[in-house]
Amino acid sequence: MVLQHVWGLFTNPKREWEAIRDDECTIGKCYAVHVLILAAIPAISGFIGTTQFGWQIGAGDPIKLTLESAGLIAVLYYLAMLVGVFSIGWMIHWMGNTYGADVQLSQCVVLAAYTATPLFLIGLMELYPVLWINMVVGIPALAYTVYLLYTGVPVMMGISEDRGFLFSSAVLAVGLVAFVALLATTAILWGMGLEPQFTR
């Protein structure tokens, strides 16, 4: 069933992680029923928000992107999320032996995909891109994502909670480094002439 585990991750995460583990989902199925759908939420919401509503700095007029510029950014944003989920899953798999976990790559990608669920869902806030509202709602979503990571790693990787805590901390560090690298890449691309185009 499409998106069958989303509700359970918010109501009873530990039990839902066990159900996700027992599903033994492949990478393709995980992407088809979860990642491809949820990753579209922030991309589409961002496209609509930046072209229809724009954002305001101070008391000035809203700043909007052109349809072409917003469309390109939305596509790249979507692709970055798809690649990001797989990359984090691959890193989890790569680090697994260090923490005594011996699971398949698919299990690690599934862990990364379901951990990102709150971040995908909070993408709805990009429909109306007001910075302070996005921060107020986004910070709790980020905190819950971290919570899902710390509850999910021991269950999905089949290790003790003590090892799971250390493993989760390492995964979190990798995620932060990947985020900073993405920001740096964005800045470089903008400096090369691929910056957003604004409406007049």
Describe the structure.
By secondary structure, the chain is mostly helical. It has one domain. Helices cover 74% and strands 0% of the residues. It is built from 9 helices and no strands. The chain has helices at residues 6-11, 13-23, 27-38, 40-53, 67-95, 105-115, 117-121, 131-157, 161-194. The longest helix is centred in the C-terminal third of the chain and has 34 residues, at 161-194. It is elongated. The model has no long low-confidence stretch (mean pLDDT 90).
Count of discrete domains: 1
Strand content: under 5%
Tally of strands: 0
Rg on CA atoms, Å: 18 Å
Helix content: over 70%
Estimated structural class: mainly alpha
Query: Low-confidence spans: pLDDT under 50, at least 5 residues?
Result: none
**First and last CA, distance:** 45 Å
Order of helices and strands: HHHHHHHHH
**What global shape is seen?**
elongated
Mean residue pLDDT: 90
* DSSP helical segment count: 9
Largest sheet: none
Briefly summarize what is shown.
By secondary structure, the chain is mainly alpha-helical.
Write the layout of secondary structure elements.
Elements: H1 6-11, H2 13-23, H3 27-38, H4 40-53, H5 67-95, H6 105-115, H7 117-121, H8 131-157, H9 161-194
Helix pairs in contact: 2-8, 3-6, 4-5, 5-6, 5-9, 6-8, 8-9
